[in-house]
Amino acid sequence: MNRFNPALLLLLASAGAVRAQQDTLSRVLVRRSEVLTLLGFGVAAAAIAPADERLATWIRGPGMQGPSLNTVARVFNFMGDPGTVIAGATLYLFGAATQRRHPLDAAVHIGESVVGASVITGVLKMATGRARPYVSANTNPHDLRFGRGRDGGQYQSLPSGHTTAAFAFASAMASETATWTPNRRWVAPAGYGAATLVALARMYDDKHWASDVVLGAGIGTATAKAIVRINHARPRNRIDRLFIPSEDGGFHMSVSPSDHGRTRVGLTRAW
């Protein structure tokens, strides 16, 4: 029996290594729930696609268009882009100025989520080459050609970039606040509600078909969930170490008069 011991030990070691590798992958790769989220939105986009033309005609009709809604649409278009970037940067500066780790943590992970989801959407825009509704006066949602997105913005309709960014922001913010302020249950409904209005604003402005915004919402939501989870599974990863001070470090703000009678404000970071 002793002669089999080395083989048995090797088998057990191999099994342990495989299990350790699986544990590592489970922290890094997407989970089933995130894949199902994306697939669910994808199915919803495919289901609503036959109604793209009718919905575009309705939302662009005289009964819907008007000065007041035009103003509202401009506001939510801005919220999608560059509003998500401005909000994330503001949250980061707030955390740096007040020495609060949670806002810093949330801001960095929100930024990663918006950028990551936007990269995916950008690649799909270039690949699908779908014409925006205004190109065909809302009559041809089937105008797609592989690779045509490189020809200009009018052929970058699918998916919606503004909607992707808005849902990535909302999803990341909801995931972050759930970890350190679980009692604030209004954050998720408020965030997703605002993101939905961004999507409607893009349709209202004739920039996207309904299926564009549904798919964009799915990409933003699923990507943000995965990125936030991965970051929390791997604390003090390279990006966190770059942008978030350690417990012993921090940001320090200084205010001092300059030689010309002006006030000089400085922000330093200690690791």
List keywords for this structure.
disordered N terminus; mainly alpha; two-stranded antiparallel ribbon; 9 helices
Commentary on this structure:
With 271 residues, this protein is mainly alpha-helical. It has one domain. Helices cover 65% and strands 6% of the residues. It has a two-stranded antiparallel sheet with strand order 1-2. A hairpin with a 5-residue loop joins strand 1 (250-257) and strand 2. Helix 4 (67-98) packs across helix 6 and helix 5 (101-128) crosses helix 8. It starts with a helix and ends with a strand.
General shape: globular
Largest sheet: 2 strands, antiparallel
Mean pLDDT: 87
Poorly predicted runs of 5 or more residues: 1-26
Task: Give the termini separation.
Answer: 56 Å
Helix content: 55-70%
Strand order of the largest sheet: 1-2
Number of helices, where a helix is a run of at least 4 consecutive DSSP H or I residues: 9
Number of domains: 1
Based on DSSP secondary structure assignment, what is the total number of beta strands?
2
Structural class computed from helices and strand pairing: mainly alpha
Strand content: 5-15%
The rounded Rg comes to 23 Å
User: Could you state the order of secondary-structure elements as H and E?
Assistant: HHHHHHHHHEE
Quick rundown:
The chain is mainly α and 271 residues long. The protein is built from nine helices and two strands, in the order H-H-H-H-H-H-H-H-H-E-E. The chain has helices at residues 5-28, 32-48, 52-59, 67-98, 101-128, 161-180, 187-204, 210-233, 238-243; strands spanning 250-257, 263-270.
